[in-house]
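Bug #77: duplicate submission created two jobs. Keeping one. Sequence:
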Amino acid sequence: MGIRFSAEAPRYVQVRQWVERQILMGQLKPGDVLPPERELARQLGVSPLTVSRALQGLAQEGVLIRKRRVGTIVAENLPPMLLQRAFTVMALGTGAGTRQPVDFYFSSLQRSILNALAPLGLRTLWLGYQIDQIERNLLSSEFVGVLAIAPAVEHVPLLQDLYRRGIPVVVVGASDESWQIPSVDTDNYRAAREGAEYLLGLGHRRFIGLFGALETFNSRDRWRGFRDALLEAGIPEAHLWTFATPYADEIDEANREAIRTVLRLPDGPTAIFAGGYYLALAVLQVIRQMGLRVPDDVSLIGFDDPPSAALATPPLTTFRQPLEQLGACAVQRLLELARGQRPEPLHEFLPIELVVRASTAPPRTSNPARVAPGSSSPAS
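Kept job's structure:
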């Protein structure tokens, strides 16, 4: 246990805030006896004088009671001023290339985070990655920590700086082995490999890979896993067409036309790996507009499994992420950091399940529905 101290406030003030957080989050309950001052100072990494000054201030406010031969006790009747304080968790997110409020992935994460925080009486402040807004809200003494939801590459230096300054930070829905920031994520790389291997097992040898903005870590990891599995299986580059869209929930017209061109090739792809649920729906629309059929002419795998995935025509083969568990786990990690505990492990990964439905099948030996334009394959 220890506090990652910030230089912005005196240490005795931060020790006071730490004790108050432990009480409001239920870690210390009325009647509990705190460790002796020297032991608490050792645990928190400060001097006994700093701890004594912090506890004396809390005793004067009626939060603690100091009894000779007993020690320092959490008051049975806590002062209303403490109980009425709303401690805040700052949740950062921009949608990472999506229309976040209506996106299944982000809305599920938001709901799971709120559900995990509600019983603790913690307020959630939703912000973007604007440094001025973040710094302004960090000045609040009721601040607990930061949950950074699916940050893009450009946001990582900001998060690393906050964490180095002693602010509890947990990244949820993104990860990188080079980070020193704690993270909770699903294993997107391994899942994408599993999806590619599943298609290979069906007999597919020519593929489209369709991914959202590659500046987001999830899209990048899915793209890497997909390509690595196929190239390691000996699939030549000429049989692999990859496309990256500006958004994770829509295909722009330039990519739509490029996908149509590839699908018209006489020896074109027989399977499509879409690195997002909405991308899978969008490419399904493209396929239908061309008069092709799923899975007769081309198989399709998506990512994420909202209820509508099973109601699509045909029902969509896709990956199911434990989004409720992901948000709850991230909240738990953040509270552990706020209590001064070390993040173990630094990066935690939750498994993803491949849900096989009717949008995938072995490839046909011939495809009369394709129109051969007589052009060569574009570069992937």
